[in-house]
Amino acid sequence: MVEPKFFEGPQKGNLAAAYAAMDANVDVITAYPITPQTTVVEELSSLVGEEEFIARNQKTQFMRMESEHSVAAGLVGASYAGARVYSATAGQGLLYMTEMIHWMVGARLPVVLSIATRGLTGGGWNIWADYGDIMGLRDSGIMIQLLGTHQEIYDSILMGFNISEHPDVMLPLFPAYGGFVLSHTSKPVKRVPWEEAQKFVIPKRDEWEHVWIDSERPMMTGALIMPQSFYAEFRIKAHEAQLKAISVIKDTMAEFEKRFGRSYGNGLVEPYKADDADVLMIGYGTIAKQAEDAVDVLREQGYKAGALRVRTYRPFPTEDILKYIKKTQIVGVMDRAIAFGNPTAGPLSTDIMAACQRYDSTRNAKILPFIGGLGGRDVTYDDQIEQFKILFDLKEKGEAPKKPYKMWGTYWTGLITGSDKVPQGEEEYFGDI
Amino acid sequence: MVEEAKKWEIIRKSREERPKIQSWTSYWDLPPASLSFPIKGCAGHTGDWRTFKPVINQDECIKCYHCYMYCPEGTVLIDDESGIVSFDYDYCKGCGICAEMCPKKCIEMQREV
Known about the structure:
The complex is a heterodimer.
Chain A: E1 8-12, H1 13-23, E2 28-31, H2 38-47, H3 51-55, E3 61-64, H4 68-80, E4 85-89, H5 91-107, E5 112-117, H6 132-135, E6 143-146, H7 150-164, E7 173-178, E8 186-190, H8 194-200, E9 220-221, H9 231-260, E10 269-272, E11 279-283, H10 285-300, E12 305-310, E13 312-314, H11 318-328, E14 330-335, H12 347-356, H13 360-363, E15 366-371, H14 381-397, E16 406-407, E17 410-412
Chain B: H1 4-11, E1 35-36, E2 52-56, H2 66-70, E3 76-78, E4 85-87, H3 97-101, E5 107-111
Antiparallel strand pairs in B: 2-5, 3-4
């Protein structure tokens, strides 16, 4: 028995991800570096030769590829053969993978691919936390989890295989965490003992039910489907799988909590003092985790604030979010990504408003969209307290307050307005559409 | 509607046991992703497409099997015992590659009809 080099202690988010993949006993890792994900695959390249894993006879293939497109293609190929696969990427790398990501979804391959999210590069180069990259793939059919702590990175990747490889689901899962904010900072991380991890993670299968490589039973997949044939049905099947994943994620979280005593809400959303709150702030990632501090400060001042962190973004946990909106009715939604041209400019806020329309009990909820922290700009909890104050203003006065950084109905938290900056456009919130 | 367990039984059978034609009837029967099995002649008798058919002169044939190697459709047949070459005219589309590749030029493309 070889003593593990790292088991418990301060650890970088990226390294926690690497250990999680090894503890899940992955078969194939394909790798190509990109900031801020680089240290994940760097660490994995050394872990595959680590004594600890060699002593346990763990055989993980580490393949260096020539690009992210090849990384994803490699995952697709290995997964077709029934292998458990893992890789990591970020930003532009994720964009370059996009074609093969749609392939994973269409072919229903259970890939786990972690993302250290970063700003996308176009007009300017940016490598810092911003969920614009992963949000660009929100409609591709992948499952997306947005993580808030270092420990959660480790746990989510370990749980990821149970969700992704579940026979009802069979879809790729992308756990995403803020680049640098989590990837390159250190916080206490505790690994699950390897033997325990093997018992928890879904047993490996020789081949998937719907695809295999066997010369005795040759099969072909990904062939041409004519319009009158079943293309539409296969697309709908992927949507059905997303919906089925909701209960699988809940079950996996419950099972994980039972075994290891850690949990993140019910796996879909993580509420913080949301049950008796007067106003609710919904967000995702590290900012939403930090909102818990803002809630504590406000509660000390006598404001009944509450926070809700959307941990699983796809499949969209409609019921779980609306449960809290129904109670509070005054809701802020904080996005750390911009969806150009969207009704609210924020991906999550648009989704939540759409979901609210489904039920009478939430149809009249007042929802204010906030956007901030783009390109890694700091959002302090003072900023978040101000966001809450805006919500309390709305609650008390019945209308959303004017701010120099409110434009087109959205509050652009942290916007550099200068002293003579005036708001543009009509001051309207979209909560009562 | 095929039962959940049954539908996998059918598609996971070996080459010999599979049904000659696989057909799904509705959304509820379908597997999660598109897949198909190589079945002989699933597009019908493609030999109908042919204009010229290959005819081999067995006297000159040296059994080098170049025709067999180059046939894109696998319609060149070799007798297991005698090694004699023949063609499967049900599926040969008459592309003429065998005639072109034959080192002895003993395959002749003859116009049909």
